[in-house]
Amino acid sequence: MEILIPADRIRERVDELGAEIATDFDGRPITVVGVLTGCLIFLADLIRRLSHPTQVALLQASSYRGTATTAGRLDIHDELLPDLTGHHVLVLDDILDTGQTISRIVDHLKAKGAASVRTCVLLRKIGRQQVAFEPDYAGFPIPDKFVVGYGLDFNGLYRHLPFIAVLPELPATEA
C-alpha cells in the first residue's frame, strides 16, 4: 500500500484546522455534525482541539455500498441529530469527492433550522467534483485515487490505519 499522507502530517494538519475553527467561531457554541462512519477518527481528534462549548452529533449519509468504489444513490439518516434550530453547525466529513453528499447534507441541515452551517473535510479529491461546492475548511488535496485509512474504508476494512494510503488495484475477480 502506498502511504499518501503519513500519520504525523495528519496530526499537524488537524491541529491547524482546530486552531482555524476555534478562531472563526470565537468562543461561540457549535454543534459538530459528523458524517458516519468515515469521520469518526477525524472527529475525535478534531474536537479535542476545540476549547469552546462543543456539542457532537452524528448522521449517516452514504452512497457507497459493499465493495463499490463509485457512488450510487445517496441516503441520509439523521435520527441521531438533536434539534438544530438556532445552532451554529460544523459538518465534518472524511472526503469531498463529487460534492453531492456534502452539498445535500448542508441543505438538509439548513432545512432543520441551523443558524449557520460550515463544512470541514479531511480530504479533497482533485478532478472528481461534480457539484460546485467550496468547503470552509479542507485538510489535504489528494489525487483521484481510492484511499483508505484514518477512518476511510474499503468494504469496512482499513479504517484503523493511522495514515491515508492508496488502495492497490484489485484483481479483476475482486472488483
UniProtKB/TrEMBL annotation:
The keyword Cytoplasm applies. One of its GO terms (molecular function) is magnesium ion binding. InterPro entries: HGPRT, Hxn_phspho_trans, PRTase-like, PRTase_dom. Pathway: Purine metabolism; IMP biosynthesis via salvage pathway; IMP from hypoxanthine: step 1/1. The keyword Chloroplast does not apply. Residues 11-154 form the Phosphoribosyltransferase domain. It comes from the Bacteria. Its EC number is 2.4.2.8. Its cofactor is Mg(2+). It catalyses: IMP + diphosphate = hypoxanthine + 5-phospho-alpha-D-ribose 1-diphosphate; GMP + diphosphate = guanine + 5-phospho-alpha-D-ribose 1-diphosphate. GO terms for cellular component: cytosol. Belongs to the purine/pyrimidine phosphoribosyltransferase family. This is Hypoxanthine phosphoribosyltransferase. It comes from Limnoglobus roseus. The gene is hpt.
